[in-house]
Amino acid sequence: MTKKLWFQVGTAILLTLLIIFMFMKVKSLFSPIVIIGQTIFMPLLIGGVLFYLSQPLQKWLESRKFPRWASILSVFIAIGLLGWGFYALVGPPLTKQVNLLVKNTPEIVKEIEDFTTYTLSQKERIPEIPESLKKTIDGAIAKIDTIAVAAGGLLIKFIQNVFQGVFLLVLVPFFLVYMLKDHERFAPFVAQFFKGDKKIWIRKTLADIDDTLRAYIQGQLFVSFLVGLMLFTGYFAIGLEYALLLALFGMIMNVIPFLGPYIALVPALIMALIQEPRLAIYVAIIMLVSQQIESNFITPNVMGKSLDIHPLTVITIILAGGNIAGLWGIILGVPTYAIVKSILKNIYAQREEIKDTATKSV
């Protein structure tokens, strides 16, 4: 029975749950490790993203006989030039729109309050609305103040995290340098603790994980950039205020699979309704067209089927990740699932190979 797959999988799940349970009981003992992990998490994550984005340039330079130190220096120069170019091109208008938004925030809040008051005064004049729907509307309106306060608190927390992140970004270049310098050594370092077929399996699994992360990070960020460009073009064409700011928000939210575009649509619709109600229809059309182009043309050609994850699975992962780890769970849930899937696929392939070998020997 111990050789049955279901028994081994069940045992592994039970042991994992037991380890998690024991860790939760003694987690105070690991608080220093947790603090250190939280401190280096963000710089390590940003360094990893920059590594996968800059790796094609490094490979191209080294294929042209650039030494490793020269390729790393060239990568940093390229990142610096791109950052400077982005700031010079986008910085002034973005700063202007942010300042204008801050200045007009009281007026925007007043517009929302007036709209809420009007809705409250008019909802009794619509008898055809079912009673259950009216109760839903009443409940949603009653929660507007709570949601607004919570959103304000999240905004303040976000600003605080940005300032803390600026301080922590000092660590990013160090992580990036060592990743660019020694990334080929990681797999051999891990594999040296194993022998024979296990060593080969470890090397192959790490290579598959590397390919998965590369495909996801490079593809997702490039797709998000193109979506942001399409949104800005559309918003600018219809004369929507804060077009650049809203397009950048849409680009960032597109990193979140499936739910990101819907999140990005909400502030754009609010701004359109405040500016001119008919613009809200144009905003919805722009978002719909950009998402159709992204899902049917851009993503299949940029990312292909490298992750091969069903949309229903993506939704489940996002919901579960959000409940477990909040925003980071939503952002990192899909790539984490893709990594686990790669590991399990390699485990299954190894088991099948062992079975075939045993069958042939018999």
Q: Can you characterise this structure?
A:
The protein is mostly helical and 362 residues long. The chain has 2 domains: 30-185, no CATH class; 194-357. It is 86% helix and 0% strand. The protein has 11 helices and no strands. The protein has helices at 5-25, 31-63, 68-122, 131-142, 144-168, 172-191, 196-238, 243-253, 260-275, 277-302, 311-361. The chain is globular and about 80 Å long. The two termini are 21 Å apart.
Q: What is the N-to-C succession of helices and strands? A: HHHHHHHHHHH
Give me the secondary-structure category. Answer: mainly alpha
Tell me roughly what share of residues is in helical segments.
over 70%
Strand residue content: under 5%
> Roughly how many Å is the radius of gyration?
25 Å
Q: Which stretches are low in confidence, meaning pLDDT under 50 for 5 or more residues running?
A: 147-152
Number of structurally distinct domains: 2
Cα distance, first to last residue?
21 Å
User: How many β strands by DSSP?
Assistant: 0
Oligomer: single chain
- Apparent shape: globular
State the helix count.
11
Largest sheet, in brief, is: none
The overall pLDDT average reads 77
